[in-house]
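Appendix B. One record, verbatim.
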Amino acid sequence: MKKEKVFPRLMGYAGKHKILTYLSLVFSAISGVLAIMPFVYIYFIIRDVVQVAPDFSKATNLVFYGWMAVMFAILSIIVYIGALMCSHIAAFRIAGNMRIKATEHLTTIPVGEIEEEGSGKLRKIILDSSSATETYLAHQLPDMAQAMLMPIAIIVILFIFDYRLGLVSLIPIILGFLCMFKMVGPKMRKDMAEYQNAMESMNNEGVEYVRGIPIVKTFNQSIYTFKRFKGAIDNYSHFCISYTKRCRGPMIAFEICVNSVFAFLIAMALIMNGVKATDQTFILNLIFYIVFTPIISTTLLRVMYMSENTMIVEDALRRVDSILSIEPLKEAGNPLMPNGDEIRFDEVFFRYKNKENYALNGVSFVAKENSITALVGPSGGGKSTIASLINRFYDVEKGSISIGGVDVRNIAKEKLMDEISYVFQDSKLLKTTILENVKMGKKDASLEEVKEALRLAQCDDIIAKLPDGLNTVIGAKGTYLSGGEMQRISLARAILKNSNIIVLDEATAFADPENEYLIQKAFQNLSKNKTVIMIAHRLSTIKNADKILVVNDGKIVEEGTHDSLIKENGIYTNMWNDYQKSIKWRVRNA
């Protein structure tokens, strides 16, 4: 994204508040010019005092000049406040619109794309990138208007009184610009992108680390177990330190230059007028320049921060665009209604983004209507990928997936979502009441329907122990549920939704034996007269499935019932034998 496109892009999000941004620029520019005037009137006071000394009674305009200086100072502040009011209203609206647009776009893209990007990264982009534009529009942009107009006014004033002193005053300004260029030149754009990348990586890995804390505590591991998180922190630290060191020299030189104008003026005064030190006009001009030129350093700092923040906003917009550029899930041109709930995979090939190898390599199978089809096999074999393709978390690269004889890509998105309930291995509940969490499965459900769904999901004991029953807010006042309890609430949501197809992805993975037993009972209620796809590592949970598919290296390598697969003496048989050994394992007292 080119620099000149930043402002028009931001205005594209402004809507009817665009006029407020333009008003803020005008008011800020006017405020900057008004802020110069008190220095002029202070000079007039000094001039009159010097000219009439020692008979100060002749300085009759001092009070007038003083009030004029105060008036312009107050007027400058009032106009600047007006500029900030306009800029803040517009900035909040623009940032809000950016967040709304990015969030709305997230609802249209495949769920798998969201998972690949990472929740921490997406959160940071949507919140922090829009916040960066908010700061830019609310503060930096009005200051930019001042920074663009004030140098012109300053230069004009510098040459009005004594062009020679004006030229001398420009020397440190030019040197300051050269030092500034070393910090905010073209390389800084790359540095800003690298900084944001490091922040995103650290944020994303931090979220994953927090999610994994139970495992860390269980096995008494340190942070070094999560090498990616530590690597992200080290990368961020290395960049910040190296960048600070690179800017240290130019920043010191810049500060020296912009704050040493008076030294150049005094040196030039001694060279140019050393012999005629009593030249009153020259002395008055010199005093004016010494009083006036400190404003130059403030103006130059604004110019420097203006360049830096423009690059930050460029990068922020680029990151928001990285979300908006993700292709949304393609809608069916002429949506068709499935005729039944049979699921069919026909020579399905799929690979994840930026991966060379196929996650699924020619997978074909049929899950009959009102039957239970179990997927088992080694981790990373493709089980979860098969489950995620059924309800279009991704779209297949080759082949097709159909429900009731209709390709899922030709089923309306809303209809497909209504047709399928997906229960994840690590279900998440929102920080709201149990009632609202369950009603996400069916918004117009009655209270009795919710209670019945909770009963079928074996949640009566959970509700009984909560302080406010169904109206208990999860996560509030120390009220939390275990992994198995959250899973049962999620199952209640799926039961209430009453979809024809159920996908269970390791739904008992984080359950203790007691919760697993209750979850299995809830499964029985959930699965009645449904087409069920079940992924499980605990083979006892799928022993009675109508069909078991053994998935390995992206292929269906074995298929049949439990008994028929045992007879084949293949991968499933080995898995079953290993499972039987594991459940017999006990810790014995010495």
